[in-house]
Amino acid sequence: MQEQIQMQVQPPTDTPKKPKSRKAMKFLGIGLIILLIIGVGRYYMEREAKINESLQAALARSQQTTEDADVYVINGILSPVHTYNITTKVAGQITEVPVAKGDKVRAGTVLARQDPADIILASGQGSTTDELLQRLKIAYDTAKDTYEKNKQLFEEGAIAEATLDQSAVQMENARLQYEGTAKYIMEQTGKTIIKSPGQGIVTSLNIQAGDYAGAGTPVATITDTSQVILKGNVYESWLSYLEPNAKIDVYIDTLDKTYEGTVTYISPVAISSGQMFPVEITLNNEQGELRAGMTASCTLKKEP
Is there a contact between 129 and 121 (Cβ–Cβ < 8 Å)? Predict the structure, then answer.
């Protein structure tokens, strides 16, 4: 019986395997992540190197073609010769806008008018400019009458010279205040009439009658396309083929037509990347066929 009990309690000979610890699994996961990061990084480094190599090759081919070819093409976009952004100079209600978007205007054309009664003087005197001027005029006339009376009394020996001098100073101060304020009001009133500084087309209109506009409010944009400018860049090796005021043919893609242009600007300074210099070629546009934003090009040829 004892022998049977001993056989029952005898431990099994096969010991089960211990599961891996959490610490070991953690280090294994970290190792896999590091390997993955290294692999991805190497892939992108190789990819970037290939892209840079392709870009350098393309740039080299472009430079070789530009430097060695017999022709060089200046490409660009036509720009207006002038663009005027007009704003209000004083605050006031807009009473009239006699132009519309798309209208052709000349220098001095009235674009808008403001109510001159809205002019606020820094002095804060008087509810209106008329009342202020009237009060200052009365003060000046009164001071002038006082001086004239004191002058007569002084000649009669009735007052001292100091009294006469004091009345003269008061009269002069009243005159300067009245005339200075009148001049200031006239200048401010003139600013309520908003005019175009040059010729062109109204390409934007930002106000309408009844609006209240503070000083500096945008009123309109006037674009002068009586001349248009082709702006482009030229390699330094081609600068000798351009001279100021030289005539050059400019081809307009949209119109499939060639116009005569004039070299009006050659920059003395290269652009930030070097080797290329900005140039401008101006075209007359009296017929209005050319529009700002059209693509244009002109060709330089090496002389044999």
Answer: yes
Taking each helix axis as running N to C, give the angle between helix 129-155 and helix 161-190, from 0 to 180 degrees, rounded to the nearest 10. Answer: 160
Asked whether the beta carbons of 280 and 250 are under 8 A apart, the reply is no
Q: Which helix (H) or strand (E) holds 248?
A: strand 247-252
Cα–Cα distance measured from residue 83 to residue 286, given in angstroms and rounded to the nearest whole number? 17
Q: What global pTM score does this model have? A: 0.64
For 224, 247, 286, the CA distances from 290, given in Å and listed in that order, are 12, 18, 9
**Residue 93: pLDDT over 90:** yes
Q: What is the rounded end-to-end Cα distance, in angstroms, of the chain? A: 124
Q: Where are the domains of the chain?
A: 21-68, 70-82+221-301, 120-191
CATH class of 70-82+221-301: mainly beta
SS3 assignment, position 200? strand
User: d(Cα 173, Cα 176) in Å, to the nearest integer?
Assistant: 5
pLDDT tens-digit series, residues 187-241? 888 999 999 999 999 999 999 999 999 999 999 999 999 999 999 999 988 998 9
Residue tagged 């100021």 (tokens): 244
How is domain 120-191 classified at the CATH fold level?
Helix Hairpins (1.10.287)
The whole-angstrom separation of Cα 112 and Cα 193 is: 6
Could you identify the residue written with the tokens 């009269």?
171
